[in-house]
Design a protein that fits this description.
The complex is a heterodimer of chains A (177) and B (230). With 177 residues, chain A is α+β, with helices and mostly antiparallel strands. Chain A contains 1 helix and 10 strands, in the order αββββββββββ. Chain B has 230 residues and is an all-alpha fold. Chain B is 75% helix and 0% strand. The chains are: A alpha+beta (177), B mainly alpha (230).
Amino acid sequence: MRRSTNNSSVSRRNFLKYSVVGITGVISAVLAVPLVRYFISPALGSAEGAEGGEWTVIARTTEIPVGKPLRVEYEQRKKDSWMLTTRRKAAWIVTQDGQNFTVFDPHCTHLGCPYTWMETGDWNKGQPHFHSPCHNGIFAIDGTVISGPPPRPLDRVMSKVEGDAVMVKDVVIRGRA
Amino acid sequence: MKALLTGVGGWIEERLELRPLISAFLDRKIPAGVGWLNTLGSATMVTFIILAATGIFLSMSYSPSPDHAWDSIQYITEEVPFGSLVRGIHYWAANAMVVLVFLHMLRVYFMAAYKYPREMTWIVGVFLLLLVLGAAFTGYLLPWDQKAYWATTVGTKIAGTVPVMGEFQRKLLLGGTEMGAATLTRFYALHMLVIPVGIALLIGGHLFLVIRQGIATPPDQQIKDRNDAR
């Protein structure tokens, strides 16, 4: 066999070694990049447009009395990866003018008890109010705290009105004082 | 960087003395005449490694329940980034593994490499072949589509045709008298826990025998060697 005459510092053995390591490295990287991307995708929050599920119609504007909260129950459809889940939910809808509608999450901001609407009673000097019975959390019709332990006004549910339909998404907006 | 690597390597080497093991594995003598046909076993092993890697990630987004299996695979294919690629690699590597394992077996058979003293390697190989076919059969059900459902119905019915033991075997495979939720979980457990562990262990034994005994000299090289000796 003829000896190589050039003065290359890489021997045939080392050349093969580097080639094998290099090719293996490239193949591993080609495999590893999609796997890593696949694995970390949920943490990158690519959201899939599924946040809060679908807009769900919960009431007609004509059904809602002015100045008197209406409690509605509805089914919220939500996409959970490959599943479509349906959850029973409730909310309080309030309107003061028949034009603007506020949808309250039906849980007290203290410890999450369901509250109710009281037209009278001792807790707000006989005036109408939201009453959470667990620790007597009292809220006004606009959600602000009147008395009791709740740390913040009532939470709201993301809502909009389209035509005469009051619609919500499963996103809770924390009440702010 | 290089200094760091040599430093870490040296630190480990000083304690474990791995060099002789590595050189026994990589620097062993192989007979003249060995060529590309002798790489089929390694190629099969590479497909196994690829299948294990992609399979682990697929299992993170797969739900082995009749209600959700198909939907979860649609989710992987259509919504997870690179999901269709990862699933595609798993699918094609699985097909390639079955083809390669047979080519590997044919090469060993036609080169008579299974003969004394390498019968044990052949026997381990037979079990590896069965496990590979088992992995292919159980994996085929998991997409839970029409093709999967009927292929498994037919496959388990074939198992049921065996005299005396048949009905027992069929129920054992199905996890009940009919195909259903228990079949899917059973196949899933076999496909991703039992069979891969079995394959990995047997590959270990198979490789140990190959390295310990050395590669068989190919037949035409044996003839050449004999003529040279005359």
